Amino acid sequence: MIQHQAALPDEPRHPSVRPVRDEDAQDLFGLIAICYAEYPGCFVDPHGELPDLHAPSTSYAETDGAFWAVEDERGRVCACVAVDFPEDGTAELHRLYVRPDQRGRGLGSLLVRQAESHALAKGATRMILWSDTRFVTAHRLYRRLGYVQEGRRQLEDISRSAEYGFEKRL
Fold first, then answer.
1. Superfamily in which the 17-169 domain is placed by CATH
2. Cβ contacts of residue 12 below 8 Å, gap of 6+?
3. Which SUPFAM superfamilies does this entry report, sorted A to Z (predicted)?
4. Residues 6 or more apart from 91 whose CB is under 8 A from it?
5. Closest residue by Cα to residue 43 from 124, 127, 132, 115
6. Domain chopping of the chain, boundaries
7. Which phi and psi (to 5°) does residue 51 adopt?
8. How are strands ordered across the β-sheet holding 162-169?
9. What pLDDT was estimated at residue 68?
10. How far is Cα 53 from Cα 112, in angstroms, rounded to an integer?
């Protein structure tokens, strides 16, 4: 008698984080537009406010920074994060976005840790970031990862954004 093994359930696929390519610009604009659309009065101005996304890999490489993406099952960018170094010992987190249908899977935490590891390897002792006051879910993530809210600023962008500052010692 031949015994058949029961099929093993699919193991969860661990997302692959890869460096952003300049060809990802359109996917990145789309990702940010989808994320902004969740918040009334929050708009994307790709020409005036997101110049780093026109050639994202090149933009961050010029500042010794880095930019990473996670792709969905169709090969589209569904999450991203960037980091640069505005001053010695300080790294700044930028562009943390996770498409709404991909949230709750740990991608935000994974990407923040990626940026923190890179920052540490480059000699940073602290990470700072600015986040729109409307992005309450992101603020919970930052606090859970050890960031402390410090400061507030008003931008002159098309969304009239107010932002909270966050900081973490690495």
1. Gcn5-related N-acetyltransferase (GNAT) (3.40.630.30)
2. none
3. Acyl-CoA N-acyltransferases (Nat)
4. 83, 84, 85, 115, 116, 118, 119, 122, 124, 126, 127, 128, 170
5. 132
6. 17-169
7. -60, -25
8. 17-19, 66-71, 77-87, 90-98, 126-132, 162-169, 148-154
9. 98
10. 19
For 157, half-sphere exposure in the C-beta direction (CA atoms, 13 angstrom radius) is 18
**Cα–Cα distance between 92 and 84 in angstroms, integer?**
5
- For residues 61 and 169, the model is more confident at 169
> Could you tell me which residues are beta bridge partners of residue 84?
92
Indicate if the pLDDT at residue 8 is higher than 60.
Answer: no
Whole-angstrom distance, CA of residue 144 vs CA of residue 112? 11
- pTM score, whole prediction: 0.88
Q: Rounded to whole angstroms, how far apart are CA atoms 27 and 40? A: 22
Under 8 Å between Cβ of 61 and 75: no
